[in-house]
Design a protein that fits this description.
single chain, alpha+beta, Cytochrome Bc1 Complex, Chain D, domain 2, two-stranded antiparallel ribbon, 5 helices, globular
């Protein structure tokens, strides 16, 4: 009986974390990482990236291998805190957006992003922009998307 209560408690806390992460992701990430059409509907799916701002295309934040499927929680937090993933520097546009978030906020966003359906959409700002058949934008690796 005690195990069942502990499991239910843990699941409830996880659900609260995901719900908080969803709210924060929609406040902080959605506007840049979800490309929308003129009716404000997601073109590819939420957080699939491809929106071009100041010459930089937003990354795919979904679990697809073309997104951030290889990130773990620590890597996600570190990337947003340092602006780097390993030796690769991220574009600095998002750093001011997340600088006011706590590590708990970032881990909640990461937990929520793990629930978002994966979308195959390769975006690579280290490559020259090419037309993307999926999102109809021009971004690095655009020509590799089918």
């Amino acid at each position: 009986m005690l195990f069942l209560i502990a499991l239910t408690s843990s699941t409830g806390a996880q659900n609260e974390t995901i719900a908080r992460g969803e709210k924060l992701a929609h406040q902080k990430c959605d506007v840049c990482h979800t490309l929308r059409n003129d009716k404000q509907q997601p073109v590819l799916g939420r957080f699939a990236g491809g929106k071009v701002l100041a010459g930089v295309a937003s990354a795919n934040l979904t679990l697809d291998p073309s997104g951030i499927s290889y990130y773990d929680e620590a890597m996600f937090v570190q990337a947003l805190r340092t602006g780097q993933v390993g030796a690769r520097k991220l574009k600095p546009l998002m750093v001011p957006v997340v600088k006011d978030l706590s590590d708990d906020d970032l881990t909640a966003i990461f937990a929520y992003l793990r629930t978002v359906p994966p979308v195959k959409h390769r975006v690579d700002n280290t490559e020259a922009p090419t037309p993307c058949r999926l999102c109809r934008q021009k971004h690095g690796a655009g020509d590799t998307n089918e």
